[in-house]
Amino acid sequence: MKMKDLKMLDKIELAKKQKNLSDEILKLRTQAAAGAKLEKPKKIREIKKDIARILTFQNQVKKIKEKETKKNE
């Protein structure tokens, strides 16, 4: 997932995407802990990075909005 893809999503879609990724990583970690061999062990790392990208983007948007409100006051 790229940042340009995140910019096209709205706030609700980002939250849904983050929840889906969190659920998926939980499922993969549970499988790994149970001793099952994962088809793509790298998938856990990729999901963690995608979640971090989403959180980073959300924080950037939040900071921009805070600056705008302070500027308007």
The number of distinct helices, counting runs of at least 4 residues, comes to: 3
Could you spell the SSE succession in H and E letters?
HHH
Percent helix: over 70%
CATH topology: Helix Hairpins
Q: What general form does the structure show? A: elongated
Rounded to the nearest angstrom, the distance between the terminal CA atoms is: 36 Å
CATH architecture call: Orthogonal Bundle
Oligomer: single chain
Number of strands: 0
Report strand %.
under 5%
Note the main sheet.
none
Q: Mean pLDDT across all residues, rounded?
A: 92
Report the top-level CATH class. Mainly Alpha
Mind telling me the C-alpha Rg? Answer: 16 Å
Domain count:
1
User: Which segments are poorly predicted (pLDDT under 50) over 5 or more consecutive residues?
Assistant: none
Category by helix and strand content = mainly alpha
